[in-house]
User: Fold these one by one.
Assistant:
Number 1:
Amino acid sequence: MNFNRSTKKETYIPTSSMGDIAFLLLVFFMVTVVFTDESGLVVTLPRAEASEEGLRDLISNVYINEAGMISIDDMIVRSEDVGQLMMRKITENPFMIVAFKTDKFTPYGVVSEVMEGLKEANAVKVFFNTDMEMPGLAF
C-alpha cells in the first residue's frame, strides 16, 4: 500500500527580525570596543629649514586690507606701483608665484587695480588664499 502525501514540507528561515538583530549587534560592538592610542616611540623629527627658505623665495604675498591698503611682501605700496614692483620681482625670479589674499570687505575696485598691475607685470601664476569655512559653524 502506497500512501501519497498531499502536503509538502518546506524549510523556511524567518528573516523578519534580521534587521533588529543586526542593529543590536552593531550597538553591542560600538559600546564594548575600546579604542586605545598607540604610544609608540617618542621621535623628534628634523626640520627642513632650507626648503622653507626656498619656498619663501618662490612666493610673493600680496595682501589688501578692508581700507584698501596694499602690502607686497611686508612692504606697503600704492596700486599704481604694483606693476613695476612685481615686474622687478619676476625678472629676478621668473618662477615667481603670487599669493593673493584680501579682506572680504575690500572694495573690488582696489582688487581690480592690483590685478591689472599683476597682468601688466605678466604675473600669470596667481592663487587666491581663502579661509576654509566648516559647514555648520558660523563665526
Number 2:
Amino acid sequence: MSLIKWTQFFDDFDDIDKNFNNLSPMLRGGDSFIPAVDMYEDKDSVIIETQLAGIDPDKVEISIENDTLCVRGLSEKKSEVDEKNYYRKEIRRGSFYRSIALPTHVLGDQAKAVAEDGVLKITIPKAPETKSKTIKIETKHGS
C-alpha cells in the first residue's frame, strides 16, 4: 500500500473567500453579495478600497472592532418597471457584507472613509508599535 501525499485544498483563507463569493446568491442567502476589496498599507495607515458604484454612501455602515473591519449596506434597485424579460441579470442588488481581519493593530476610532467615483476608500491609522520592555531579574541572597 502506498502513501498519498496530503495537499491543502485551499492555499489560504483568501481562496476560501473567493470561492464563497463565487457561490450563487441562493446558497449565500438570497439577494446578497460580498464586495471585492483591495487592502494595502503605507507608513502610517492601512487602506481598504472597494467598488460600490451605484450604492448610496448613506446606506453603507462601516465599523472596526478588534482589528477587524466590517462593511455592510444595501444596494437598492431603482426601477419603475419590475417585470422585464432579462437575457442576462448580472448586476448585483440587495444587501452586502464584508468582514476583513486587518494585518496590524489599528486606531479604529480615527478611521476615515471617502466615497469618490464609485470607490469607497477607508483609511485606518496604524496603532503605535508597543515597545518590548526588558525586565531585570533581581536576586536575593539568603542570610
Number 3:
Amino acid sequence: MNILKEVLKHEVFPALGCTEPIAIAYAASIAAREIKGDIEEIDITVDPGVYKNGFAVTVPNTGGEKGNLIAGVLGALIKKPELKMEILQKVSDEDIRYAKALIQAGKAKISYDNSKTDLYVEVFVKSEKSSARAVIQNTHTNLVVLEKDSQSLVKKELKDKSSVGHEYRTILLEMQISEIIELAQQIDDEDYDYIKSGIDMNLEISKAGQKLQKVGYYIYELVQRGLILDDTFSSSKILTASAADARMAGLNFPVMSSGGSGNQGIVAILVPYNVGKFFKIKERRIVESIALSHLINSYIKCFTGDLSPLCGCAIAAGVGAAVAIVFQQYPRDMGKITLAVNNLISDLGGMLCDGAKGGCALKVASSTNSAIRSAYMALNNYGISETEGFVGKSAEETICNLSKISILGMAGVDDTILGIMRDKIL
C-alpha cells in the first residue's frame, strides 16, 4: 500500500466551502439521489464536532446563508454526489428558495449526537414515494451506509477503532516520523503534479481573499504602515489569512484541503511554499516538503481525531508546515525536526477550535507565524525540551501527549462551546 497516495486520495482534495457542511451536503445528495418525487422531510444527525464546525460558517453560492442545515438541504436538492466536496459549485435561486421553505416549515432539521466521538454524518431523506438514508463516517467522503426504503444498498463494516476508518490510517498511526519522511521523498510524477495543482489552487483563492477587507487585508495594511516588517513572516501570513478569509466568506473558489480541512490545506501548502521560495529551495524539494506536510497533518489527526477540540490548523497543519520547512534544508535531521514539532506544539498546543467562521483567519495567521518561527529555531538547534510541560522526549511522544490532552483532558470542551453557541440563537 502506498500511504502517500492513500492520504492524497482521501484527505487532500479540492473543496468548495467549509468541509463539514459540504460533507453534509454530499451525504444528503447521496441519499436524495435514491428517491423519487419532491423532498418532504430531511433529518440530519452529526457528531458534535461537525455541528460546531459548520454552525456559523458561510455556505458558498447561497447569498450569505450560514450553517450546516442549509448546506445539507441544498445538497439533497442538487442530487449530484459525483461532485463530492465541490457539490455546491452551482446553486440556483430556486434551490435556495426551496431549501429555505423546507427549513422554515420545520421539514428539515439537524441535531447532534453526543455519543459520536469521530466524524459522523447521517442524513435521512423522505418523499411521498420513498425514503433513503446515508451515513458518512471517520472521513468527509467515507460512505459506510446507504439504504433505500430500509433496504441496504451499501454497508461497510468498520474495523476496530484503531483503524480510524481506513486501513492506511492504521499503518500511518504506527509509523515513526523518520519513516514518513522517506514516503515524502518517493513521490512520483502523478503525485508531483497533484501537489503542484494544490499550490496553484490555494494561491488563487488567496489572491481573491486579498480583495476583502478582512484579516489578510489588515496584515497587509500593517506592513504598508511600517508597523510590522515586510518579510517572509508577513508575506506568508497575508497569503494564508487571505485564503482563509475568502474561504470563510463563502467565495466561489475551491481550496486544496489537507487532512480533510480546507484551512489546514492552506497552512500545510502555502507556508512551506512561500518559505521555500524565499530560501530559493529547488522546486522538487518544495513539492516533497508539501507532501511531507500533508502526511504529518494526517499522522497527527490519527492521534487527535479529525475534529479535535483543539485547532487543527495549529496542532496538525502548523506542525506539518514547520516540519516541511526544516525538511527543505535538512531532510534527514531528526533532531531538528523533533525540535520543530516540540516548539510549535509547546506554543499553540492549547488553541481551541470554536468552529469554522471568519475568525479562523486569525488562527491561520497565528499558525503560520508559529510554524516559521518554530522551524527557524529548530534549524538553529534550539527548541523546547521534555523537561517542560507536556513536551515529550521525541516528536512522537509529544504528539501522543497532545492526543491525551485533546481526547481525555478536553472531553467537555465541545459541549461547553456548543452551549455558548446555542445560547446565541435562543
Number 4:
Amino acid sequence: MIKITEGIKLDPAEIEESFIRASGPGGQNVNKVSTAVQLRFDLRGSRSLPEAVRTRACRLAGRRLNKEGVLVITAARFRSQERNREDALTRLVALLREAACPPRRRRATRPTLASKKRRLADKARRGTLKKQRRAGPDDA
C-alpha cells in the first residue's frame, strides 16, 4: 500500500505503468531503451480515495486527466527507467496529498469605515485633478 495521508492508502494494483522511449539526454541509449514512464491511475474509478478527494484531484489534474477519468503522468526527466518510475509515483502522491487537504473556507469580511472614507477621498482628489486638466471655454 502506498501511503498518501494517515487515513488514505493507495492500492498499487490500481496503478498501471507503461514504458515509452524518451527524448532528451541519453546518447545512443535513448534510441534503444524505453526509459520514460507513463503512469496511469483511474482517478474516477478508484476505490481507495474518498469522494471529496477524488473530485478535488480531478480539478487539480487538469489536462493530465483524460475523458475516461484516467490520470496520465509521463516522467522522462531522468536517464534511468527506475528513477523515472520513482518520479512519476512521487508526482502522483504529491497531487493526491494536495487534493486530500480541504481548501480553507473564506471568511467574509467588510471594509472598515476608515478605508471607505480614504477611498472616497482619493476618488474626489482624482476627480478634481482631472477637472483641472480639462480645457475651459476660453482655451478653445
